[in-house]
Amino acid sequence: MTAPILSRQLAKSIVDALKRAGHLVLAGGESEAVLRDLQVHIDPVLAKILPRIGRSPIMGEVTSTFGDEATDEAVEELVAELREALLDSDGVEDVYADDRTIERMIFRCLLDDLRNVGDALDDAEDSAPPISVRLDTLGYVAAHAARSADDETLRDALDRAAEAVKSELDRYEPGSRTAFFRPANPDPEQRIDIESSIEEELSDLVDLGVVDLPTVTRRVGLARELDRAEQKALFRTIDKLAQKHLSNALSPGSWAWDGPGALALTFTPLAEPDDRVINEQTDAFTTELATVDLSAPPPLTPAIPDAGALALAQALAGLKPAKPKESATKEKAPKEKAPASKKAASEKSAPVSEKPTSAKPASAKPAKAEKAAKPAAKKAATTSKTTAKKKAAK
Question: How many domains is the chain partitioned into structurally?
């Protein structure tokens, strides 16, 4: 019986029992709506308690109704939720009983039906043995992860694998590395789903670094030893070679320095190790590595600056630091206007030339004196001639 069918059966049993007792009156044509309101609360609880019902035999003093305390608590909470759902349902016209009476009848219906389901599950378990999976028969990665993981980590992974395919881990036997699962539905194809889920969970342990797979190492010698600076300079070149030649899908590889004169190639097979595949990758990597120039680079000599650059540097070194310019946003002080009388006087006065007067050469002064002396001498001679003529006339 599937969970949805069982959920509807439980809801119908509760409604029918309350109606027969005269405690519940439904509105006309609303019975299906009431069943849906109850199923909303039954479905999530049923998914939790159904795998535990009827699994544990009752021995000694009876301390649990369903054989499991967690199941008892879940059923008690469900009873209270179903009572509230009945009172709030639009399909219920009236309820003629107190809360305790309603809850007792709901609990009795759940108890009878769930016990019948538990008995049916026990009968089905007796007839159908659990599905066993030997972890060593799984894929290469899953099998090695199962061998490398500790017991607690492995059991957690198996529990997650069972939950992913709606099954339950019944038990695990470390000696034979065999896990036993009980599927929710007896389906012949359930084994395939369980094995695929286990492989996925165990592969995740490898991807997350929880467990490591076996590796294969190859050592490749170099033509000469390299110091740290040379190794750093060649890192990108060698890494490109590794990406080109060490990328086989079944045996991917990586590289690392193995001292100053060698490289270590590490391969992680994802299937049964194949030496041929590993050797082919190593040979291809080594062949192209031999073509890489490993000679020491020439020492760097400092460049001598030319004369012009040297002079410019010296000139810049001798410059005084420039004074910071005044802020362009600084407002200038307004000029004071002169009185009208002063302005008129300033307009009448001749402007003073700002151009400096060029000094005349000293040799120009004697020439000027000679020019001034010639008219004076000529005038004196004329005067003396006139005086002489007057005296003679007398």
Answer: 3
